[in-house]
Amino acid sequence: MITAENITKTYNNGKTEVLRDVSLEIVDGEFVVILGASGSGKTTLMNVLSGLEKADGGTVTANGKNLSEMTEKQLTAFRREYVGFIFQQYYLLPHLNVENNVKMGAHLAKNDAYREIIAAVGLESKLKSMPSELSGGEQQRVCIARALAKKPSVLFLDEPTGALDEKTGREILDYILREKEKQGFTAVMVTHNQNIAETAQTVIRMNSGKIVQRYENRARKTAYEIGW
Fold it and tell me: Of the residues 5, 50, 77, 168, which has the maximum number of CB atoms within 10 A of its CB?
């Protein structure tokens, strides 16, 4: 369970208000999409919910832990143990090949089946390739494999298909959705793509730092049924 109560967040010494009294609840095992245009506050909200950033006001509770009261060291330990991330930027270690980048995530979960995940995202032939030798889409797939190999309790995704072509994007989204059902983790995805929101259980729409709409999808679509 993730609960946020009256969250506020500002930048530029309080001059730029990014989150304005945001409250929400995410149930364990739920797939939530946070929708919004650029600058709506959706990525900042994801960062606060995941413990990457601290809110200026309000409280965030995840897995029974009050993130608002944690030190930076405690937040780092929390993220290492419970959280997986898939970012727009790939954040791969440039001196490690594909296998070893993914193995880093797998090592945290003592997961020996990481090669199966690499194969599932279509990179079995790239095991020994370095990040500099991969296309943007291939690097994104390494990032996805690394996050899933960690077997997180909560997976946070920031535009995970943004760098992928339609065919690969659908395949990867389908794989993520199937793994979510298989592993049972909670998934929180940030996107501006209304079509992807149709695959979620719950959709939260943001504008100007506030939640302006929340609704449930009564008939969820698969990755192959949505528009692109």
Answer: 50
